[in-house]
């Protein structure tokens, strides 16, 4: 559907991307959607203070839907333009990161609209009331902090671009404090081993490979989902995998024998068709709901209380810390933050050799063998 067709028909499907927009389009995608596609959407008058439920489906989940939302509330073209530029920034280079900012920022936009506020000149009192409304809706500290941070980031850019008078979420706002201890449910080392042993004996090669790579790399769910087929390779004698990470970057990680063998076995079934590394039996790339269902189903079947994909990551990092690995080594594996400046000089040369992956692989492989035969 071309922009001319949209303009002539007077309607548009917010789920249908403009022509030529693909998943690998990053920096210019928001500008294309908000700058060219969105203006074709007919403007409608916003409802008069409609009630807003701050839980459930976000007002916008994609850039397309955010464009639709802004046009529906008759946002000024200058705000649309600035929002496109904001979403195209370096911190929002990865498609998954863009979607996260869109979801979180859309809650404030919908809330402000429901209260009849001027988005370009909102009072800090309204920002505080929004924070209180999020708390009343029962959201966790982490969720509230994330939504407020997204709104603040949006306003910071609007102010810088001269499209808003001030940031109502700026300096002086009392924000939720994140807990010092993660609330994510993890597994013990024995439970990790039991889960892998069950998957190897009773699940498909794809399922075992997914879980083995997740455990061996402590990766985020988005990384395992977005990994391309050519992510697997070798580097100086190491079996490695290049996983997409936050900010549109790629991180090279060791695959110990347990995970490398699982991946090789899966590839014999998958074939060499280009695309994502992990695909379903019908050839479609796996997605987040698929991964969540898989992890919960397998952990439950293995006799372990259900955990999420992030629970696996949490479990691996905790296990490594319990085994005495220095905090900065585990932090580097997890990609939580940049290593110390002094480590930048030797990371490229020694990071693979100093990886805890081999000992972790040996530890888990021994446990898998110990549980072998349990489900025969």
Tell me what you see in this structure:
By secondary structure, this protein is mainly alpha-helical. Helices cover 51% and strands 4% of the residues. Strands 1-2-3 form a three-stranded antiparallel β-sheet. Helix 8 packs antiparallel against helix 9 (205-217), helix 8 (189-202) packs across helix 16 and helix 13 packs antiparallel against helix 14 (327-334). The longest helix has 20 residues, at 95-114. Mean pLDDT is 81; it is low at 1-28, 37-48 and 338-350.
Q: What's the SSE blueprint?
A:
Elements: H1 3-9, H2 29-37, H3 63-72, H4 77-87, H5 95-114, H6 124-136, H7 141-160, H8 189-202, H9 205-217, H10 221-226, E1 232-235, E2 238-244, E3 250-254, H11 257-270, H12 288-301, H13 309-322, H14 327-334, H15 347-350, H16 357-371
Antiparallel strand pairs: 1-2, 2-3
Average the pLDDT over all residues and give the rounded result.
81
**Amount of helix:** 40-55%
Structural class: mainly alpha
Shape: elongated
Based on CA atoms alone, the radius of gyration comes out at 23 Å
Task: Please count the beta strands (DSSP E, at least 2 residues each).
Answer: 3
Order of helices and strands, N to C? HHHHHHHHHHEEEHHHHHH
Strand order of the largest sheet: 1-2-3
């Amino acid at each position: 559907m071309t922009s001319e067709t949209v303009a002539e028909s007077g309607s548009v499907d917010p789920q249908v991307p403009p022509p030529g927009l693909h998943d690998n389009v990053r920096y210019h995608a928001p500008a294309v959607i908000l700058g060219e596609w969105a203006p074709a959407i007919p403007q409608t008058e916003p409802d008069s203070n409609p009630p807003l439920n701050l839980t459930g489906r976000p007002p916008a989940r994609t850039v397309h839907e955010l464009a639709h939302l802004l046009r529906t509330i008759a946002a000024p073209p200058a705000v649309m333009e600035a929002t496109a530029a904001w979403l195209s920034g370096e911190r929002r280079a990865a498609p998954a990161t863009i979607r996260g900012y869109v979801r979180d920022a859309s809650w404030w936009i919908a809330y402000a609209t429901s209260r009849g506020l001027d988005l370009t000149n909102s009072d800090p009192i309204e920002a505080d009331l929004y924070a209180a409304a999020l708390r009343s809706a029962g959201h966790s500290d982490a969720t509230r902090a994330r939504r407020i941070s997204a709104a603040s980031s949006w306003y910071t850019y609007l102010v810088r671009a001269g499209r808003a008078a001030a940031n109502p979420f700026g300096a002086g706002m009392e924000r939720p404090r994140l807990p010092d201890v993660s609330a994510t449910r993890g597994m013990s080392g024995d439970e990790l081993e039991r889960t892998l042993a069950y998957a190897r004996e009773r699940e498909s090669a794809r399922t075992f490979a997914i879980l083995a790579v997740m455990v061996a790399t402590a990766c985020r769910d988005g990384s395992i989902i977005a990994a391309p087929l050519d992510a697997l390779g070798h580097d100086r004698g190491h079996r490695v995998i290049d996983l997409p990470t936050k900010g549109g970057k790629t991180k090279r990680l060791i695959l110990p024998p347990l995970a490398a063998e699982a991946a090789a076995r899966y590839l014999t079934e998958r074939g060499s068709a280009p695309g994502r590394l992990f695909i379903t039996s019908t050839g479609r790339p796996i997605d987040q709901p698929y991964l969540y269902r898989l992890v919960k189903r397998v952990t439950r079947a293995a006799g372990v209380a259900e955990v999420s994909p992030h629970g696996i990551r949490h479990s691996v990092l905790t296990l490594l810390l319990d085994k005495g690995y220095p905090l900065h080594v585990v932090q580097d594996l997890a990609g939580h933050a940049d290593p110390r400046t002094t480590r930048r000089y030797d990371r490229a040369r020694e990071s693979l050799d100093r990886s805890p992956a081999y000992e972790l692989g040996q530890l888990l492989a021994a446990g898998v063998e110990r549980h072998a035969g349990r489900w025969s």
